[in-house]
């Protein structure tokens, strides 16, 4: 008998190996990194060493300038006072990131659906195989009875041979079911990203 049993539990760790979901996770991470980069633009940027060597009078005068005048001082940038442009950039980046996250979530749902469909089909084939195996045993019992009757001289060789034909037909049906189960099991493993054993998720560097 071909082994195509389905594990009792199929966790997300199995799905996470799918190349399409891994790619989407990388895209989501990249979009989140872009949000962080856009947010980082809100922080002041300056080299404190640029103020070294200035005497107290110059420093006092320097820090009495208005906030917008600070941006014209070499080595100092206060992007907080360019909030309109930066806010627009941040919101746009957030929107793109949210869209990417939504696409990732949809990809996960699609993957779950694929697994559910393929798993259901395989389970159905497994159930059909059990019933077909019972039919095979039933015809074999009949064939053995016919052979025993022939051995006792109660029936002819033709009757004993004819009793073998249903067995062959049911066994062929069983083999065809096993073939379909193997194919469906492969489909299920593909939808899981490969096999039933969880493997480490590759992180993008």
UniProtKB/TrEMBL annotation:
<keyword id="KW-0564">Palmitate</keyword>
<dbReference type="InterPro" id="IPR003423">
    <property type="entry name" value="OMP_efflux"/>
</dbReference>
<comment type="function">
    <text>Could be involved in resistance to puromycin, acriflavine and tetraphenylarsonium chloride.</text>
</comment>
<dbReference type="GO" id="GO:0015562">
    <property type="term" value="F:efflux transmembrane transporter activity"/>
</dbReference>
<protein>
    <submittedName>
        <fullName>Multidrug efflux transporter outer membrane subunit MdtP</fullName>
    </submittedName>
</protein>
<comment type="similarity">
    <text>Belongs to the outer membrane factor (OMF) (TC 1.B.17) family.</text>
</comment>
<dbReference type="InterPro" id="IPR010131">
    <property type="entry name" value="MdtP/NodT-like"/>
</dbReference>
<keyword id="KW-0812">Transmembrane</keyword>
<keyword id="KW-0472">Membrane</keyword>
<dbReference type="GO" id="GO:0009279">
    <property type="term" value="C:cell outer membrane"/>
</dbReference>
<keyword id="KW-0732">Signal</keyword>
<keyword id="KW-0449">Lipoprotein</keyword>
<keyword id="KW-1134">Transmembrane beta strand</keyword>
<dbReference type="Pfam" id="PF02321">
    <property type="entry name" value="OEP"/>
</dbReference>
């Amino acid at each position: 008998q071909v082994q195509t049993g389905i594990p009792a539990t199929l966790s997300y760790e199995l799905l996470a190996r799918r190349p399409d979901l891994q790619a989407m996770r990388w895209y989501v991470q990249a979009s989140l990194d872009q949000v962080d980069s856009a947010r980082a633009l809100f922080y002041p940027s300056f080299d404190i060493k640029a103020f070294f060597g200035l005497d107290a009078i110059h420093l006092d005068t320097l820090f009495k300038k208005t906030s917008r005048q600070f941006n014209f001082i070499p080595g100092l940038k206060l992007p907080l006072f360019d909030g309109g442009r930066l806010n627009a950039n941040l919101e746009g980046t957030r929107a793109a990131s949210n869209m990417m996250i939504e696409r990732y979530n949809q990809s996960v749902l699609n993957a779950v659906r694929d697994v559910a469909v393929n798993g259901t089909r395989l389970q159905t084939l497994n159930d059909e195989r059990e019933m077909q195996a019972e039919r095979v045993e039933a015809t074999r019992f009949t064939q053995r009875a016919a052979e025993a009757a022939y051995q006792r001289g109660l029936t002819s060789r033709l009757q004993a041979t004819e009793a073998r034909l249903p067995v062959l037909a049911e066994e062929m049906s069983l083999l065809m079911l096993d073939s379909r189960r193997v194919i469906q099991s492969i489909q299920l493993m593909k939808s899981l990203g490969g096999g039933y054993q969880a493997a480490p998720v590759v992180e993008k560097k």
